[in-house]
Each structure stands twice: as structure tokens, then as C-alpha cells.
Amino acid sequence: MSAIQLAALARTPEPHTMLRRFLAFDAAGTGANGIAYLIAPAPLGRLLGVDSGLLFTLGLFLTAYAAGVGLLASRPQPPALPVRAVIELNLAWTALSSIALAAWLSPTTTGAVYIPVQALVVAGFAGLQYAALRAVQKS
């Protein structure tokens, strides 16, 4: 992705602002997922064909993770090491989602669509965050 495309997505040419925005979008999406899993694990479990206990546990993790990513996004210049950790955790989530779908989950049709789509969204966040971090390091 070019710097121009990245700046257009972030609606700013300033690398630190770009990085902060991509982290904030990640925190918002992850937080929304986590809260949904916490407040409605049973209906979402039935919809997706995933155990409600697993969804609740994931909700706890995702909510805490989103808070951490949001805190990082609130920093004027997010430090590179924690940003790299977010990128790597996002890539791990993507891989684990794919492995879980193939190896042990038996989702409904909705779940079979939702799980890979959310994994691709998370991978997209990782890619945007990586590109923005590289732009910060070049500036």
C-alpha cells in the first residue's frame, strides 16, 4: 500500500495520526465484539454455532485487549514495541480463527461466514497498522 493510499484511508498525511487512527478503529471494532460476546453469549452462540462459554471468555479477552489498544491509540506517539505486539496479536488472532474453524469448531452457516470475515478484518487492521508504523519510522 502506498503512503498516499494509506494517508487517504486515515484522512491525514501525518504518520503518527495515521497510526493512532488505525489503532483506534481496531480498539472500537474489537471492543464492540467483546462487549457483544459478554452481554449476549447464548444468542450469539446459537447464531454462530459456537459455545456460549467460549464466546463469553473471548468477550473478556477482547474487551481487555480493546482497552489496551485504545490506551495505546490515545498516546500522541504510540511506542513501536507495543504497536508491534498489537500487530502480532492481530495476526495470531487471524491464524487461530482459521485453525479453530478448520480443526474444532462446527459453526452454523452464519458462523462459517462470520468467522473468516472477522479474521480478514483483523488481518486488515494488522496490515494497516504495520504500514502506518513503517511510515512513522520513516518520518
Automatic annotation (TrEMBL):
- Protein name, per record: Integral membrane protein
Keywords in alphabetical order: Membrane, Transmembrane, Transmembrane helix
- List the transmembrane segments: 21-40, 52-73, 85-105, 111-133
Task: Cite the source lineage.
Answer: Bacteria, Bacillati, Actinomycetota, Actinomycetes, Kitasatosporales
Can you tell which superkingdom this protein's organism belongs to? Bacteria
